[in-house]
Amino acid sequence: MPKVEATRIDPITLEILWTRLIAIADETATILKRTSFSPTVRESNDYSCVLFDENGDTVAENTIGIPSFNGVMSRALKSILNLYPRQNWRPGDVVITNDPWIASGHLLDITCVIPIFYRDKLVGFSGSIAHMADMGGSGWASDGREVYEEGICIPPLFLYKEGKPNEDLIRILRGNVRVPDEVLGDVHAQIAAGRAGAALLIELLEENGIADISPISREIQDKAEQAMRKAVAAISDGEYRHEMQTDGYDGEPIELKVKVTVNGDQLVIDFAGSSPQIGHAINVPYNYTHAYTCFPVKCAIDPLTPRNEGSYRPFTVVAPEGSILNPLFPAPVNGRHLVGHFLSCVVYGALAKAIPDQIIADSGSAPQQYTIFNGTWRDRPYSTVLTICGGMGARPTDDGLSCTSFPSNVSVGSMEITEAVSPLVVWRKELLQDSGGAGKYRGGLGQVIELEIRGEGPVQMSLMFDRVDHPASGTAGGAAGGAAHASVNGELAVSLKGRNQVGPGDRIRLQYSGGGGFGFADERQTKLIEKDLLNELISKEAAVNVYQYKG
């Protein structure tokens, strides 16, 4: 491979190096996944790995990392560098934090950063965020009233200093979480992955005779920025608005309003007028708001260029302080995804007025609807997260994907693993017929899962459900998707956004919402209706009454 000059990198060499950096991020992600302890990381892929230059700017992200994690990591690292400037770092250091306003928006995600030194010079950082199985406090729920009750908060602290562990911090962590082996195991998996990423980057530098990655970083970020500015410039200048409601909390809907302003190659996304912050844990810290605003826009207008710091330079995201999308400390934030995931829907609603052929209808998996079970089983505490997906919204040229997460891309864990590590028996898990919104292109189907509690002791079940009263909307004449629902022993769950007490023998039914349709149902091709009937994705009644099927 040609040697890299400090002033310019030829396109072929840049492409090779860029791909290699992404491969390093992917390899660190594989190491994290395979050395992790909890099913949340190992099965549901609820983590991301990122490489940074020495300034804390993102250079490469792992391919299937969680968008919110990828989107906040550079902001988090820069906050850490304000506290611990670059000259304070040494080989063997590891800094962690889960501060919601510094990192990814709630306490359950731990950010881990490791410096990379080459020839006695700091050349970059390897970082990751992983969702922990537990972080103490009241457990993962959205009915908290202050962040203090949601778990232990770790400001940016050295877990390792020059290779020596901070035993005090480790003891504090172990003493405040329900499943310390899983939590500390996952943190050390993050460290193992970060160290591997550092070694792989050093290997790349040595192979190519490069002193540091600054020239590569600048070129990569500039190319990504150019691609995004070109994509923005292709949208007609103007102001595009949209507003929507979510279920909110205790029957009080949340209002989301957006104004998207396109001016040449710059995009301003302003959420002024959205609901103020509330006293329940569905507030969204700004970092998370920024991440889940930028990511869906990139998916729509520049889906193929690899993401890095340059991708989002053309964007300005405005969310007033004290609003639901930029709450003031100590607002409760544990369920921030219950509003944050809707940002893809409201932004796409605005962009539909400008680029209707580049966006999708609302997704039933926006927001992700989690169910968390805590208790003791076989004389051991457990914390089990059910990561189940609704249907994606229909696309301008095809049906939506069933049971697929968007805008998050968290995976659904194995039900067999769930049964092995908790007192849950899964009796039913199947696609929910007719739950995909009707249209020329049908929304992706949601699903239904039925569980039973076994064992002898009580179980705390925390529900994080939305889309009950406000199902996923269709686009361009498409119909809404099916609604979400949760019941215990045939009766509506006590709290759809809080903690419920269940016990042995209780039967739980969880229904996940479908995606909205795209285009009018009477425009759907007959062969597609017949295919859906054959696969039992729609009922005969829906085929006749909704699609006017005459066959």
Helicity range: 25-40%
Average predicted local confidence, pLDDT: 94
Strand order of the largest sheet: 2-1-5-4-3-6-7
Unreliable segments of 5+ consecutive residues: none
Query: What is the CA-based Rg, rounded?
Result: 23 Å
Brief characterization of the structure:
With 551 residues, the protein is α+β, with helices and mostly antiparallel strands. Helices cover 28% and strands 24% of the residues. A hairpin with a 2-residue loop joins strand 8 and strand 9.
Describe this structure in words.
- The protein has 551 residues and is an alpha+beta fold.
- Helices cover 28% and strands 24% of the residues.
- It contains twelve helices and 20 strands.
- The chain has helices at 11-35, 39-42, 67-83, 167-174, 180-208, 214-233, 286-301, 337-340, 343-351, 415-421, 526-534, 540-545; strands at 47-53, 58-61, 94-97, 109-118, 121-131, 157-161, 164-165, 238-249, 252-263, 266-270, 315-318, 369-377, 380-388, 424-431, 447-453, 459-464, 485-488, 491-492, 499-502, 507-511.
- The strands form four sheets. Strands 2-1-5-4-3-6-7 form a seven-stranded antiparallel β-sheet, sandwiched between helices. A five-stranded antiparallel β-sheet has the order 14-15-20-17-18.
- A hairpin with a 2-residue loop joins strand 4 and strand 5.
- The longest helix is centred in the middle third of the chain and has 29 residues, at 180-208.
- The mean pLDDT is 94.
